[in-house]
Amino acid sequence: MQTLLQDLRYGVRMLAKSPGFAAVAILTLALGIGANTAIFSVINAELLRPLPYPHSERLVSVATANSRIHTTNGAVSYPDFVDWRSQSNVFDGFAAYTDASAALTGQDNPAHLLGANVTTDTFDILGVAPELGRTFQPGEDDAHHLVVVLSDQMWRQQFGSDPNILGRVILLDNTSYTVIGVMPPSFQFPLRPEPSKFWTSMSPLYENSDGAPSMAAQRGAHFLSTIARLKPGVTVAQAQAAMDVITASLAKQYPDSDKYFTGHVVQQQALLTDSIRPALLVMMIAVSLVLLIACVNVANLLLARSTARGREIAIRSALGAGRSRVVRQLLTESLLLAVIAGALGSALAVWGCAALVRLNPESLPTIGDIHIDGWALAFTAGISLLTGILFGLAPALQVSHSSVADALKEGSLSTTAGRNRHGLLSGLVIVEIALALVLLVSASLLVRSFVRLQDVNPGFDPRGLMTANLDLPDAKYSDAKKAQFSNDMLARLKTLPGVEAAALVYPLPMSGDEMRTSLEIDGHPVPKSEVAHTSLRVASPGYFSTMRIPLKQGREFAETDTATATPVVIINETLARQYFPDENPIGKHVAPGISTGPKEPLMREIVGVVGDVKFSGPAGENRPESYVPYAQIPFGSFTIVARTSHDPESLAKPIFSVAQSIDKDLPTYSPKTAEQYLNGAIAVPKLNTVLLTIFAVLAMTLTAVGLFGVISYSVAQRTRELGIRMALGGKPADMLRLVIGQGVRLALLGIGAGLVAALALTRFLSSLLFGVSSTDPLSFIVVVAMLFAVVVLACYIPARRGSRVDPMVALRYE
């Protein structure tokens, strides 16, 4: 211990003697460690930290997939869910849920709240008890038990932490619910960016007042999500085998609806993080390469510095210090640098985590807060120690291996680097250049991909377009009243100053919502299991002109397309091309699988064909879409779209006021411009591109600094050689070419190695790219040219200094 303290004290004195060297080394390492810690904190929160439920590793979801139309949206019908639950023996519990929303009224100001509609055993499966009261009991899943469980946030914000909240009756969507419980502050379900404020029990046998069948009678209606808890000792593979048997049996029993459906058992955490896992792993690899480049840089600095300390090390050895003692002293100094850099890196990581959340707060599932916790600090400590060993070991071994006699004979100012030391320096620079090229090529590919993504035509004009959502509760609004409300709402919106056009639609493109349903084509009968599918939207007259979606054939919806008029439909170009390839679709009849009341879906006359719209994002494929008039299928939820020549965000309050003027209990919610929806659709690719570009630029900067240091060191050690060359007739231009040539040779070797590595590694980026190949030649050419230019510039300054050596000064230098 005493020896260690001596080494530490001596290391501190040595660093204090060279503050410039220490500052550069610490800052270089801190940047690499801080970036690694920040990305690890995100990975820890999203991929590693358990879900906030007891024994969360046993929580799974059973998601459906349709092998015929290649969809894996995970939605389950209620009858299938009931069969899965009753026939499986591998789960301790099996629940279903769906998102819900409601307007809370009876207060001073109505509020729109996001919640969930769940089966009664959901909370038992999650293993979380309420903070107050109780959760749902068996039998409370029918329409007569209108009970609700509140979140802690809703209890505090909407009801002022009322201690008498249990038993209180509140109004949700104009329906009375009795509060039976309040969940703990940390409880969230489902896990998503906006947490649920309330939970109601699912009523599978409930039939709407218009006579529409209950969810228990609709095996083909897939809209539920599931969560289940595996029995102790049961693996995901065993559960999957059990589900394969069940779904195969149901496919034979119900061929019309289940023939092509299978169930996939996925761990809940894996399901939540599936979309971001590849990007996070790529980022972790990228920051690891940045840290490796930082280590190489500091190793180069230590090797260059070791020349000046050669005589000191030789004297230590001559006085009896063994090689292991010398290595230990040098490693102690390296670890001291790493520990200081780790502390600074932790501070940088705190800022980095906050910056990541600000860059894209909605792209990450809400599994846990992204912050520097104990695991992140442990990671920082571990990576700091590993870094200290990594960059300190090679220089320490190199210096300790030097000849004592040679070092004592040579002057400290005239010592020339040995061949081995020079070779190690050059090798490290080659590694730096190769790693930097890999990162630069990766960043270039993502940049080109992102540019291509931004250039994609979404199918409508988002400029000047404002949107807001509104829900009309079934308990208060019949179909006729919904149609009347929409007409009144749009008429008043069109009178607002600056509003050029207004309409409504559900679901809105780019919102992430989709209604996928069957599509029967008149004159082309097929078995129900083979029926076509379409994405369905309901829209008001003027929707296509408001969105500026081009009309290709026929007409738009008109005010005369009412509930009593001829049922009509408008289709997109993709649907027309797939199902009417060689004929004019206008006047043909199709029946999207949707209707009001107990009636079968009606055959509808195709009256128009419109352009394709990207419904999920610019990278999404075009799908067959059909539109029906809102007046003929009046939904309780819709999105208002209004176009203005002014700032679209200025319409948020007027739209809210118009809705309130018609019904004071109806708040609009989630006001967004269409451009904000578009930006949200490309937020994850944007974050990936920004981060990888930052890391690549940092890597290139560190590489340039490292090469500059090596060439400067080489020029300093070759001062006498350069002087002799000048004395023998050499010109400054010759010296310039000589020194730059040394750097260029290293660059060419590094670029060659980097190209091989980049060609092998960038294929792992394929899932993150859009419209660009992972071997895109232009990206490689631009990066090589840019990196080569940076290398030449880094060599030029020390080379210029070397070309100005005075022969007389150089000859008496030693």
Question: Could you describe the 3D structure shown?
Answer:
Among the domains are: 70-259, no CATH class; 423-455 and 684-814, no CATH class; 473-665, no CATH class. The longest helix has 37 residues, at 323-359. The chain is 49% helix and 16% strand. By secondary structure, the chain is of the alpha+beta class. Helix 9 (277-308) runs antiparallel to helix 14.
Unreliable spans: 404-408, 410-417
Please estimate the helix content: 40-55%
Tally the helices. Answer: 24
Largest sheet descriptor: 6 strands, mixed, barrel
Q: What characteristic shape results from the CA principal axes? A: elongated
Radius of gyration: 34 Å
| Side-by-side strand order of the widest sheet | 2-3-8-5-7-6
Number of strands: 21
Distance between the termini: 42 Å
> What structural class should be given to the helix and strand makeup?
alpha+beta
Tell me the strand percentage band.
15-25%
Q: How do you describe this structure in short?
A:
This protein is α+β, with helices and mostly antiparallel strands and 814 residues long. It contains 24 helices and 21 strands. The two termini are 42 Å apart.
